[in-house]
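Exercise 7. Given the encoded structure of a 71-residue chain, write a plausible sequence.
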């Protein structure tokens, strides 16, 4: 599992706790599997509203500085 990659619950809520990988390759919450474990997703795998909610965890977009041309 890559470090620094954010993981989200299906509704777009950020997960900050432990994770474990299931035999089928899915990532779930919790260091080990239990009754409260839920599947986790990367931002690109979320659906519309969940992705909008998750984007709030990345902060505002930075404006690009104009480049100097012609010199």
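Solution.
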């Amino acid at each position: 599992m890559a470090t620094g990659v954010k993981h989200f619950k299906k509704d777009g809520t950020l997960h900050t706790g432990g994770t474990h990988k299931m035999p089928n390759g899915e990532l779930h919450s919790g260091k080990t599997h239990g009754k409260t474990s839920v599947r986790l997703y990367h931002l690109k795998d979320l659906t519309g509203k969940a992705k909008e909610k998750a984007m709030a965890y990345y902060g505002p977009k930075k404006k690009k500085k104009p480049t100097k041309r012609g010199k």
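Remark. The helical segments are 48-55. Students should compare their own answers with the one above.
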